[in-house]
Structure formats: structure tokens, C-alpha cells
């Protein structure tokens, strides 16, 4: 277990409110106090609501949520991490924000995103060591949960922007099946990849959050480990993982065996290798289309790397884009076949712990394939390296099997804790 | 041939400019003059640009385009057909608007859309008979082309909002394969269905427009009819088509035979019947999510039918939505199998000609299946009923086979004209 800050537990808060032991306004006040105390150092918030509405009713009443500032909010500025949108006030909420409000949640603030959810970082630091990146692009959402300021946060992933910051900050990050959460009203970067995701302290917490936000049966259920096959996923990217991360993956597999799961090794099929390579071109081309209008208007206030990404996206030929999409489609076919034999795959969430320095948000190499495949994935926190920085193991399941994923991952999370 | 107004021919204009016989500024002036002369009666435009930029360069230089007012434009108001958005000025263009500008087109105005591209009509009339609906939701785009005000226009289809108004107004309307045209920066209604589409005088014209807008090889190419199988599609909805429409479909089939195509009858497979039935629930549920934020803020300025649609969408259970999506997925599988045997399907574009009255935009029963399937479709104009109102025949092809569709449909369009 990493010696991190004390986190707010969403499932416990929800239970406390439902059993009359906690009042929504007091719960939200806890978050307000924590933000006032901590965010001067963490910089997880781009904006904090001055007097946020607190609902007495609803499945998420009293839950203070940080929303990545890539989603529109009608009552708080929405700047997409970009000076071009300083002071921007959208007319309405993004769909997922409205969903959270309808469930009774309090939108306590907008969390820091990298510029347009691409790579140019914001000011957020890693709560476990302020000299290290929190990861990105959902930097503030991961750090706000990790530092104990909020029990839940919303982010997005186009490459690895949920799973990676979750791993670096030692929290659970859940990237659902494509389209399970609505993205209308987010600033799109690559629409066929852009996926909304959720953060909470543990897998069990993030599953409760998902269930209460969507009305879907997603809370982690009981798991009979003897009926579940867990595959340890061997892909070429593993060569780029550091020693600590490989050790964590090994320990995770051992803990799964000890918990009674059937554990097998799975070699990455070639169509999935090819699909991973196609991710970049699909992202570039779609970013050229989706953010070309920004380049036309706001080029001067863009970071050089964002400007270059959009420009190069505009140069991709339709033929190359179509070829890449065909590779992705074949990859999805191979993924379906893969999940005929295993229920859940385990891979690193990132090549290692959060790198030192704030100029880079780290490497999405372990994430982008699963974003492109649209399969659900969750970062299971709990491991750490020699410097006590969090390491995350990523669990992935078949498209649409989100509840299985969250249930198995939650059971694995317990198993990992028991094994320490 | 319907005795309609004289239309501007995009392909001819493009050729005239490229051979030095027409100057971009003069071409755009033609549209400005036509709008000034005609739009007081047609009401196709929600806004006309005061002094629109004209490019000297680019594959669409000199082409004045009407853009459905469901797409953002940074330099013209964008109101989504809704009083809630009166005076709305987005920060940037929608992706497809930026694409058109980059190709040198002139955005001459915003065309009338029904409210949020749903059913509440705007003021546009049918250019062939002002007492009849132009269809919707892309009412203004279809009418602007049909009345000879612009050579091209951009619209969207979630149910039948491109094909139906194109048929009612006697122009070509092309709904491409899902995602072929970008939708970032449109006001989404049901994101998994929302498809951008194009209008021009003829299929050949709309294909040239598509090619020059996207850089894809989409212009209609030569067709060896002897190698092409055309299927006349028999679905239960045909019972709801009127006599004139059924006659037009028969004449279309005969003309195709005369032109040397192999023509076969195709009965709708059951998975496609079930998929059509699933469209409504998918649309409703997604509209609840995508437009729920508008309901929360602007309920008072919504029409009762839009308000009701969003409200009922918010009541759809995730289970019912997932079931509907599964039916859609099975339908897509059945569509793939269907196109193993035929290259292009022919069906009515609408149950008949444009109904009298402006309170309803007509019936999308022949369109929504193909929107849900994501397959490319085009309205082939050229038929008419006893009252000389246009009737359209819809051609549909396999996902991604847009060029085949446009080439065959263009050849069929000639064959229909020759048969008259």
C-alpha cells in the first residue's frame, strides 16, 4: 500500500447518508474544507464553485464531484485547459454533468485538464510527490481524488487519459465501454476514441459511483473466483515497462491465483498489435477535423505541440485513415475472440510509476489499444515502487461486460491487499 | 421531370471556374442575388451572411453553401432552430464548416432547421408548392438548393432529415456512411445516429460536392451496368407508400433493367425489421442524455413535442436501450449479408410527395433504418406525382461503399430521365 493521503470513500459516504449518519450539506462541506486546505499545493482545480447547490435527494446526494474542465458547465467557467477559452461560459451542461446533477451530486469544481485533453500539462502535481506528474490528461480529476479533496471525479480518455493518471495517483480509474457514458458537451479531440471515465478511491467506490450516475447495475457484485479466468496479457510494450511494474504484474498474478482465480498467460494476437499501431493515425486525423476550427481561429494561443498535432492531423489522407479504421475493426474482432477464453485481462496501467517532472504527463502505450477497442478497463491501485510511488495494474474485459470487469477487479483489489 | 425552379448545378459551376469561364466572386454573387430575390417567399435561410468571404483558391472556390443552422459558425448566429439559442455566437466553426471553408467554399448563410433538428418546423416552404412542407429537419438546406439559391447545402439526418426533404424538394440528398463527415460542432440529438449529409441539384452534383469537401474519391465514376445488381427492397413500410410512390419505384426498376442493370427483388430480412423498430428507442434515449441539459435550462422555450421527446427519453431504462442497441447490431450483420448479393438497394425516399401543410415535416419511415445501420443512402430525384410534386427514390449501399453508391445512383438518375 502506498503511504498516500487519506482518501474520501464514496461507498462509505453513500452508506452513511442513507443510514442517516451523514447529511448531504455536511458531506459537501468536508470537500470544500479539504479543497481550501489542500488545493493551494495540489492545483487539481481549475475552478472551485463558490456556493454549489447541494441536493437533499438522489442516489449521489452529498457527493461532491470534480469535473474535468473539458466538459461544459453552465454555472462554472469551461476553459478546456486552453487560454483561447479563458472565461468561456457555455449555455448548458455537458450531458454527463446534467446526469450527475440529476442524481443529486454536487459539482464542486472543474478539475485541471491538459490543453484540449492532449499533452500540454496544467499546474497539477502528484499528491504522492509534488515533484512528479499526476499523469494526464485528466490530471486534476485523479489528483483531487487521490489527495482526499473529493470522493469522485469525472474525466475522459482518448489515449490513456483516465487509466494513466489513476495509476500515477494511486486511485481507481474506470474507462467504460465506448458510449456507456455520454460525451455530448465535451470538447472533442478524436470523437471515435473520446470516452468519458470516472475516478474514485477504490474499484468498489468507482463501481458504486458508476451505478448511481447511470442507473445501470454496475456496482461490484460477489465473484466466484473458481469460475473466472484471468489472463496476464503479454504484449511487446511489456519490454518498455520498468522492473517495479513487471514485479507488480507478477505479484498481481500470484495474488489472483491465491484468491482462487484461474490465471493463464495470453500472448497478444497480431491483429491487436496492428490495431494499437493504428491508434495514433486515427487520433491525429480526427483531431485535425475536430480541432481544425480551433487552429483556424486560435492558433496563436495554442501550445506548439497541440498546434503541430492538429496540423499534422489535417495532412492525413482519407485512404490512410480508412486503412487505420479497418485495422481497428479487425482488432475488435480479435478482441472478441480473445475474450472467448478469458474473462479479464491484466496488463500494466503504465510503464511504471509517475515520472519525475511536470513537463510530461507520461506514456499511454498500455492504454491506447483498449481505448480504440472500446473495451472497458479499470486501473486497480494498490502497488507501489521502492520510492513509495503508486503503481497500477489495469484490468480489461469484453465490450459491454463492464459489471463483470468491475466485480472481478474489485475482488482482485482485495486479493492484492491481502497478499501484501 | 417536375416543373420545378431552375437549380444551380455544382458540377457545371466548378468546371466553369476551373476553365476560367466563371470567377468565384461572380459565382457567389449569383447566389446572393437569388437569395435576395427568392428567400422572402421560400424562407430557407435563418441567417444570410452580410459580406461573406470569397476564396480565389480551393476545390470549392466560388461555391456558395447553405449550412443547416444546427452547425456552429463563428461568424454567423447559430440558433439550432430554437428560441433558447437566439443570438448564440459560437467560438468556432463546426468541423464540417471549417472543412468547407478550407476547400474554398463560401458559407453564404445558415439554413432553417426544425427545432434541435427534431419535428417542430421552421418557416420554410416547399419551392414546388408553397402550401406544402419542404420536409425536415434539414428544411432550409433542401429548399435553398431546390429553389436555385445555392448549388450546395449541408444538413444532418438522425431519422430521415436529409433523404426526406431532398425527396420532397426534388434534389439529391446524400447521407454518407456513418462518420464519413465529421459532426463535431453540431448540436447533437442522438449521437450514435446523427449523420451529416449533403444536398445538390443532382446525384452527380452532390458526389462532386462530397469529393471536393472531403478529399475522398467520391465523384460518380463510370458504371458497367452489366456487373451491377440492383435490389428492389420489399419491406412492410411499402404498404404505407402511396400509389404514385409505388409507381415511381416500379418505373425506377424498369428503367434500371432498360439501362442494363441486373434487377432483383429483395425481401427485408427479419433482423432489419427488428432493427427499424429499435431506432425510436435509441433516438429517444440518446436525446434524453444529449438534450437533457437543455431541458434542465430552457424547458420554457421548448415546443411541447420537443420537451416531451426529451422527457420520455430520460425515462428509457439502460436495459431497454442496450436491448435496442443489440437489435441494431444484429441488423448491421444482416445488412452486410444482404449486400453480399446486391450492390445497391432501391426503396422509396418517403411514403409519397410532400404533404400539404407546414405543421408536419412528413414521415421518416423509409429512412430511419438506414440511418441506424450507418449505410450510405442517396435520394435520386426525378419522379413526380399527378400534382407535379417531386417523388424521390432512395438508393442504399454497403457501409463504406459510398463511391459505388453515388456512381450507380448517378447512372440510375440518367436512366430515369431517359425513360421519361
Multimeric state of these chains? homodimer
Number-wise, the strands of chain A total 11
Strand order of the largest sheet of chain A: 1-3-2-4-6-5-10-11-9-7-8
Q: Look at the structure and name the CATH superfamily of the domain at 10-214 in chain A.
A: Amidase signature (AS) domain
Give the CATH architecture of the domain at 10-214 in chain A: Alpha-Beta Complex
Biggest beta-sheet profile of chain A? 11 strands, mixed
Average of the residue pLDDT scores of chain A = 97
What is the name of the CATH topology of the domain at 10-214 in chain A?
Answer: Amidase signature (AS) enzymes
Question: What shape does the CA trace of chain A take?
Answer: globular
Low-confidence stretches of chain A: none
Q: What is the helix/strand order of chain A?
A: HHEEHEHEHEEHEHEHHHEHEEH
By DSSP (H or I, 4+ residues per run), the number of helices of chain A equals 12
- Beta-strand residue percentage of chain A: 15-25%
The termini of chain A sit apart by 8 Å
Estimate percent helicity of chain A. 40-55%
Would you write up a description of this structure?
Chains A, B: GO terms for molecular function: transferase activity. Chains A, B: Keywords: Transferase. Chains A, B: This is Asp-tRNA(Asn)/Glu-tRNA(Gln) amidotransferase A subunit family amidase. 2 copies of one chain form a homodimer. The first copy, chain A, has a domain at 10-214: Amidase signature (AS) enzymes, CATH 3.90.1300. In chain A, helix 4 runs parallel beside helix 5 (163-169), helix 7 crosses helix 12 (402-419) and helix 8 (270-298) packs across helix 9. Chain A has helices at residues 10-18, 24-42, 95-102, 139-146, 163-169, 203-214, 243-258, 270-298, 304-315, 318-341, 368-373, 402-419, and strands spanning 45-48, 64-68, 106-111, 152-157, 172-175, 195-200, 229-234, 262-267, 344-348, 377-384, 390-397. In chain A, strands 1-3-2-4-6-5-10-11-9-7-8 form an 11-stranded mixed sheet, sandwiched between helices. The first copy, chain A, is 40% helix and 15% strand. The longest helix of chain A has 29 residues, at 270-298. Chain A binds chain B through residues 72, 74, 84-85, 88, 91-95, 97-99, 101-102, 179, 182-185, 188, 191-192, 214-216, 286, 289-290, 292-294, 296-298, 314, 317-318, 322, 400, and chain B through 72, 74, 84-85, 88, 91-95, 97-99, 101-102, 179, 182-185, 188, 191-192, 214-216, 286, 289-290, 292-294, 296-298, 317-318, 322, 400.
Amino acid at each position: 500500500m502506498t503511504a498516500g493521503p487519506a482518501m474520501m470513500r464514496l461507498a462509505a459516504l453513500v452508506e452513511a447518508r442513507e443510514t442517516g449518519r451523514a447529511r448531504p450539506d455536511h458531506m459537501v462541506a468536508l470537500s470544500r474544507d479539504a479543497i481550501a486546505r489542500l488545493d493551494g499545493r495540489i492545483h487539481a482545480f481549475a475552478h472551485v464553485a463558490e456556493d454549489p447547490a447541494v441536493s437533499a435527494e438522489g442516489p449521489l446526494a452529498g457527493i461532491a464531484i470534480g469535473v474535468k474542465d473539458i466538459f461544459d458547465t453552465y454555472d462554472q467557467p469551461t476553459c478546456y485547459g486552453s487560454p483561447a477559452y479563458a472565461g468561456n461560459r457555455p449555455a448548458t451542461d455537458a450531458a454527463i454533468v446534467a446526469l450527475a446533477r440529476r442524481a443529486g451530486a454536487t459539482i464542486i469544481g472543474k478539475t485541471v485538464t491538459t490543453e484540449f485533453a492532449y499533452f500540454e500539462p496544467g499546474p497539477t502535481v502528484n499528491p504522492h510527490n509534488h515533484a512528479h506528474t499526476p499523469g494526464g490528461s485528466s490530471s486534476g480529476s485523479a489528483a483531487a481524488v487521490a489527495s482526499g479533496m473529493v470522493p469522485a471525479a469525472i474525466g475522459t480518455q482518448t489515449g490513456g487519459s483516465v487509466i494513466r493518471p489513476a495509476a500515477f495517483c494511486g486511485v481507481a480509474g474506470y474507462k467504460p465501454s465506448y458510449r456507456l457514458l455520454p460525451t455530448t458537451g465535451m470538447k472533442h479531440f478524436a470523437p471515435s476514441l473520446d470516452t468519458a471515465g470516472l475516478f474514485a478511491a477504490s474499484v468498489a467506490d468507482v463501481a458504486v459511483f458508476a451505478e448511481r450516475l447511470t442507473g445501470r447495475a454496475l456496482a461490484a457484485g460477489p465473484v466466484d473466483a473458481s469460475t473466472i479466468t484471468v489472463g496476464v496479457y503479454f504484449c511487446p510494450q511489456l519490454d518498455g515497462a520498468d522492473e517495479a511494474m513487471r514485479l507488480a504484474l507478477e505479484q498481481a498474478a500470484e495474488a489472483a491465483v491465491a484468491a482462487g482465480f484461474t490465471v493463464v498467460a495470453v500472448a497478444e494476437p497480431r491483429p491487436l498489435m496492428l490495431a494499437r499501431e493504428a491508434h495514433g493515425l486515427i487520433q491525429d486525423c480526427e483531431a485535425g477535423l475536430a480541432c481544425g476550427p480551433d487552429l483556424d481561429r486560435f492558433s496563436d494561443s495554442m501550445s506548439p505541440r497541440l498546434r503541430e498535432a492538429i496540423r499534422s492531423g489535417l495532412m492525413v489522407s482519407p485512404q490512410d485513415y480508412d486503412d487505420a479504421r479497418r485495422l481497428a475493426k479487425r482488432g475488435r474482432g480479435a478482441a472478441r475472440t480473445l475474450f472467448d477464453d478469458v474473462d479479464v485481462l491484466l496488463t500494466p496501467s503504465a510503464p511504471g510509476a509517475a515520472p519525475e517532472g511536470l513537463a510530461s504527463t507520461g506514456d499511454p502505450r498500455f492504454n491506447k489499444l483498449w481505448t480504440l477497442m472500446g473495451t472497458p478497463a479499470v486501473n486497480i491501485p494498490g502497488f507501489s515502487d521502492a520510492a513509495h510511488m503508486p503503481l497500477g495494474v489495469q484490468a480489461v474485459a469484453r465490450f459491454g461486460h463492464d459489471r463483470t470487469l468491475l466485480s472481478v477487479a474489485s475482488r482482485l483489489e482485495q486479493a492484492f491487499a491481502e497478499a501484501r
